[in-house]
Structure formats: structure tokens, C-alpha cells
Amino acid sequence: CGKSFSQAANLTAHKRVHTGERPFTCPVCSRRFSQSSSLVTHRRTHTNERPYQCNHCDKKFTDSSTLTKHLRTHTGQKPYCCDVCFMRFTQSGNLHRHMKTHKSL
Q1: What is the pLDDT of residues 37-72, one digit of tens each?
Q2: Which CATH number do you get for residue 93?
């Protein structure tokens, strides 16, 4: 695909995007993952471990990226911007869904 990586381990992990290889298996439910870090995060769903806590409220999360998204509900930060109408969004998925409204134009 042309992507380059400075570390061999990152290239190996990226290749799994193309091959569909999922070598990391959850011992509890047998769900498979392409990256070991994804398995670590997933295993927290079985233990209910939530090490990432919001400093504005009592909510806790299994991973830092979900906490980051949640924090935007407190800060009002909307880092994703539509390049057609300049409407802003807190999450990239919301922007992608919004972009479909411009397809008919």
C-alpha cells in the first residue's frame, strides 16, 4: 500500500490490516485481535477493569481513546470539521456520517 514505518514491529502490525490475520486470542471468549494491545483492552471487558477515569465526573473507561472522546463532552472541543459547510464534530465517525448528507448535492 506504500505506507512506511520506522519500526519493524509497526510494519508487521500494519500488514495484518491487509492479510486479516488475528493472532491474539482472548482466553475467555475466543475473540481474536490483530494487535496485542487490542486484546489487552478487550480483556478489561471481562474483568470490568476501567483504569482511565474522567477528572470532571465519576465515569471510568477501559481505554484512553474512549476517555479522550468522553472529555469532549465536558470541554466542548470539536476537532473534526466538515470542509463543505464547516460544521464541527466531537468524533470523526460523526463527521463521516455527516459527509453523506452532502453526497446528494
Answers
A1: 999 999 999 999 999 999 999 999 999 999 999 999
A2: 3.30.160.60
